[in-house]
Design brief:
single chain, 288 residues, alpha+beta, D-amino Acid Aminotransferase, Chain A, domain 2, nine-stranded mixed β-sheet, 9 helices, 15 strands, 30% helix, globular, binds N-(5'-phosphopyridoxyl)-D-alanine
Length: 288
């Protein structure tokens, strides 16, 4: 059965979906996106993803084509139409279709698309074993807080990881880790404190990051938002990444050097469990 996708208000088979070549997303990467996780057929942390979509759109002055309630209804319909139990919903909004010219077109209507991707998230083998990470220079622009579809730097970073047999690339600026190519970077210090970079224009404000920091605080784990260097990461007790597509994923080596025991650490494992527990709680209990 064909995958059903969403294009500008219409659900249709993937094979029939068409975007004009003059779409500014295609020509200029003039657009933003979101990725939300689906577990047990339900969207996880979706309100926060839609709030970040609204913010990203606002920062580049594209009108949001749908309200949060409309987005939610459309996402839920897409999940149902694709019988998606576990995986991802991808949403993208571009400035729309117009004759190629750098300045904003006066008459373009935003292009909104969505698709789903099945993915094993809960019982992922990578989460059991942990992943390797490599460091690369962070060569991105200065507005990394916007979830822009201009992802060439991240594509090159991830490819460097793939070619090194690693699962993620940690991007580095002035000796300090900014974030993963598609994830937030965390370390655990030898005395058990969780460290992640504070929010700024240098990183994407991760939705999973916020939830994990809250869960850590609730579990009496001390959380420090500060810069950390590659050297500090190499000597950390544990490391992990967070994202909608991996939740909490242990990182067991950096540039070929084991982190801590070289196995997923207890804090990363615990935070993954806590995150899953909360996400999988029945809707009625979550609302209570
Ligand atoms: N990426 N930092 C970057 C650069 C990211 O691309 C992502 C997510 C994150 C984590 O954010 P969140 O917890 O909200 O998913 C941090 C998504 C999953 C992607 O591009 O596929």
């Amino acid at each position: 059965m064909s995958r059903i996708v969403f294009v500008n208000g219409v659900f249709l088979p993937y094979e029939e979906a068409r975007i004009p070549i003059m779409d500014r997303g295609f020509l200029f990467a003039d657009g933003v996106y979101e990725v939300a996780c689906v577990l047990d057929g339900r969207l996880v942390d979706n309100e926060a993803h839609l709030a970040r979509l609204e913010r990203s759109l606002g920062e580049i002055r594209i009108a949001n084509p749908f309200s949060p309630a409309e987005w939610t209804r459309l996402e839920e319909e897409l999940v149902q139409r694709n019988h998606l139990e576990e995986g991802l919903v991808y949403m993208q909004v571009t400035r729309g279709v117009a004759e190629r010219d750098f300045g904003f077109p006066s008459d373009a209507r935003p292009t909104a698309i969505m698709f789903t991707q099945p993915k094993v998230i809960r019982h992922s083998a990578a989460a059991e074993a942990g992943i390797k990470a490599v460091t690369v220079e962070d060569i991105r622009w200065k507005r990394r807080d916007i979830k822009s579809v201009a992802l060439l730097a991240q594509v090159l970073a991830k490819q460097a990881a793939v070619e090194a047999g690693a699962g993620e690339a940690w991007m580095v600026e002035d000796g300090f880790v900014t974030e993963g190519s598609s994830s937030t970077a965390f370390i655990v210090t030898p005395d058990g404190r969780l460290v992640t970079r504070p929010l700024s224009n240098a990183i994407l404000p991760g939705i999973t990051r916020v939830a994990v920091m809250r869960l850590a605080a609730e579990a009496q784990i001390r959380v420090e938002e500060r810069l950390f260097s590659v050297a500090e990461a190499e000597h950390a007790a544990e490391a992990f990444i967070t994202s909608a597509s991996s939740l909490v994923m242990p990182v067991v080596s950096l540039d070929g050097k084991p982190i801590g025991t070289g196995r997923p650490g207890p804090i990363a494992r615990r935070l993954r469990e806590l995150y899953l527990e909360e996400a999988l709680r029945p809707a009625s209990a979550a609302a209570a």
